[in-house]
C-alpha cells in the first residue's frame, strides 16, 4: 500500500495511506508471464481467481514447479492427509491441461513418496509429451523403497538439464539405449545406481559439461567424457576407486565420508580447480603423485582431510587453502613447493605442527589457528601477512614453551617488511 503525505488544516503534515493501484495488471502479458515463471505453480493457479484476465494465465507459463514441503502445511499437522491429497489432486489436474501452444521449458517435481508408483509414472508422462528442456525430479523414498525412473525419460532429446533425487536407476539389465544429445547438466542426489549403469548413461550424453554424483550402489565408478568440464563426487557406500578420464575437465570436487578411496585423475590434464573435503588422501601416495601431474592446476583446497603428512608440488598452482574444522584432521606437517603460488591460507585448530613453504611468488599469507606451527618460508615477494591466534585453549597451554614458539613463529616473518597484521583473540583463554 502506498503512503502519501498530506497537509492538514492546522498546518501540520501527516502520513496517510491510499490504496495502491494494481500495477501488475497493467503489465504486458509477456512481462507478467516472465514474473509468474519464478513463482511456485500453486501460487500461480491461485492467482487465476483474482480477475478474468488472470483466469487462464497459468496455462501460458513456461515453468511448472511443484514441491509439497514448500507448498503445503501438512508437515505441521501430523496424521492429517487431507492437505497431502489436495497436493496430489492439484498436480494431477494441472498436468491434465494440454498447455496448447505453450512451450514448457522447465518441469520441477519434489514430493514425498507414499507408495504411489503409478501416480509418479503418470505425472512423468507430461514432460515427455511436452519435450521439456530442464527436468528436476526428487522423490523422497520411504525406508528403502526407491521409485524407479522411467527409461523413456532417458531418450528425451530436448533435455539440457536433468536433476534426479531419491530414485532408482538401472539401465543395464536389460541394456537400455540412452539418447540425451542436448544434455549439459546431470545431477544425482540420493540416487541408487551402479557402475555399469553410469557407464551406459554417459555414453548417451555426448555434450555433457557438468556432472554431480551423490549415489548409493557405486563401487568402482568410471567417468569417461570428452566434453565434461565440472565434476562433483560424493563418496557414499563402499566406493573403492574413482577413475576419471575427461580431457576437458576444469574442476573436480570430492566429498568423502566412509573411508579411503583411490582417485585416478591421470586423464584430466586440464584441471584448474581441485577440492577435497573429508578425504583420506593423505594416507595414500596417489595424492602426492597426482598434484605434480596437473600442469594447469591453479587452486587447491583441502578441507578436513585425514592424514599425517602432505607434500604439494606444482609449478602452476596459484592458491592453496587448508581448513581444519575438527573432523579427524590429523595433518601434522605440510611441505609446499610451488614457485608461482600467490595465496596461502591455513584455517584450523591445533593439529598442524610444521609448515614449509617454498614459494618465491607468494603475495598473501594467512594463518588462523589456536596453536602455533613451526614455519619455514621462502617468499621474497610477500606483501600481506595475516596472523590470527584464536582463544579457546586451557590456561596451562600458555607456558614458556608456548611463548618461545610464538617468538620463533613471528621471527620467521620478521624479514618481510611489507604489510603485516597480527591479531590475537586469546582473552577468553585467560578469563
From TrEMBL:
<feature type="domain" description="F-box">
    <location>
        <begin position="21"/>
        <end position="70"/>
    </location>
</feature>
<dbReference type="InterPro" id="IPR053772">
    <property type="entry name" value="At1g61320/At1g61330-like"/>
</dbReference>
<dbReference type="InterPro" id="IPR055411">
    <property type="entry name" value="LRR_FXL15/At3g58940/PEG3-like"/>
</dbReference>
<dbReference type="InterPro" id="IPR036047">
    <property type="entry name" value="F-box-like_dom_sf"/>
</dbReference>
<dbReference type="Pfam" id="PF24758">
    <property type="entry name" value="LRR_At5g56370"/>
</dbReference>
<dbReference type="InterPro" id="IPR053781">
    <property type="entry name" value="F-box_AtFBL13-like"/>
</dbReference>
<dbReference type="InterPro" id="IPR032675">
    <property type="entry name" value="LRR_dom_sf"/>
</dbReference>
<dbReference type="InterPro" id="IPR001810">
    <property type="entry name" value="F-box_dom"/>
</dbReference>
<protein>
    <recommendedName>
        <fullName>F-box domain-containing protein</fullName>
    </recommendedName>
</protein>
<dbReference type="Pfam" id="PF00646">
    <property type="entry name" value="F-box"/>
</dbReference>
Amino acid at each position: 500500500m502506498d503512503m502519501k503525505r498530506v497537509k492538514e488544516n492546522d498546518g501540520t503534515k501527516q502520513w496517510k495511506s491510499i490504496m495502491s493501484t494494481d500495477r501488475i495488471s497493467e503489465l504486458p502479458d509477456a512481462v507478467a508471464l516472465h514474473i509468474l515463471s519464478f513463482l511456485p505453480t500453486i501460487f500461480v493457479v491461485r492467482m487465476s481467481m483474482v480477475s478474468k484476465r488472470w483466469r487462464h494465465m497459468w496455462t501460458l507459463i513456461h515453468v511448472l514447479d511443484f514441491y509439497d514441503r514448500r507448498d503445503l502445511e501438512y508437515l505441521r499437522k501430523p496424521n492429517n492427509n487431507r492437505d497431502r491429497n489436495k497436493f496430489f489432486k492439484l498436480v494431477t489436474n494441472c498436468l491434465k491441461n494440454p498447455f496448447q501452444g505453450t512451450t514448457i521449458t522447465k518441469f520441477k517435481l519434489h514430493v514425498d513418496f507414499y507408495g504411489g508408483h503409478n501416480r509418479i509414472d503418470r505425472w512423468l508422462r507430461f514432460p515427455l509429451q511436452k519435450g521439456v528442456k530442464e527436468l528436476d525430479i526428487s522423490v523422497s523414498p520411504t525406508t528403502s523403497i526407491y521409485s524407479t525412473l522411467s527409461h523413456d525419460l532417458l531418450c528425451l532429446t530436448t533435455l539440457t538439464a536433468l536433476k534426479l533425487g531419491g530414485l532408482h536407476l538401472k539401465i543395464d539389465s536389460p541394456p537400455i539405449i540412452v539418447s540425451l544429445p542436448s544434455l549439459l547438466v546431470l545431477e544425482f542426489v540420493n540416487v541408487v545406481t551402479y557402475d555399469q549403469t553410469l557407464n551406459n548413461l554417459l555414453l548417451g550424453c555426448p555434450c555433457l559439461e557438468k556432472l554431480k554424483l551423490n549415489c548409493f550402489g557405486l563401487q568402482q565408478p568410471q567417468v569417461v567424457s570428452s566434453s565434461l568440464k565440472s565434476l562433483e563426487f560424493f563418496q557414499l557406500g563402499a566406493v573403492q576407486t574413482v577413475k576419471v578420464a575427461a580431457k576437458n575437465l576444469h574442476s573436480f570436487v570430492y566429498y568423502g565420508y566412509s573411508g579411503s578411496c583411490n582417485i585416478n585423475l591421470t586423464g584430466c590434464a586440464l584441471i584448474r580447480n581441485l577440492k577435497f573435503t573429508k578425504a583420506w588422501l593423505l594416507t595414500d601416495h596417489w595424492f602426492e603423485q597426482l598434484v605434480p601431474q596437473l600442469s594447469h592446476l591453479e587452486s587447491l583446497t583441502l578441507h578436513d582431510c585425514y592424514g599425517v603428512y602432505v607434500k604439494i608440488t606444482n609449478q602452476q598452482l596459484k592458491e592453496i587453502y587448508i581448513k581444519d574444522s575438527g573432523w579427524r584432521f590429523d595433518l601434522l606437517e605440510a611441505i609446499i613447493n610451488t614457485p608461482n603460488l600467490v595465496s596461502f591460507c591455513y584455517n584450523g585448530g591445533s593439529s598442524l605442527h610444521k609448515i614449509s613453504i617454498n614459494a618465491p611468488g607468494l603475495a598473501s599469507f594467512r594463518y588462523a589457528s589456536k596453536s602455533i606451527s613451526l614455519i619455514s618460508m621462502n617468499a621474497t615477494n610477500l606483501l600481506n601477512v595475516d596472523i590470527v591466534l584464536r582463544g579457546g585453549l586451557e590456561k596451562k597451554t600458555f607456558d614458556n614453551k608456548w611463548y618461545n614458539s610464538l617468538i620463533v613463529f613471528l621471527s620467521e616473518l620478521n624479514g618481510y617488511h611489507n604489510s603485516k597484521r597480527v591479531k590475537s583473540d586469546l582473552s577468553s583463554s585467560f578469563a
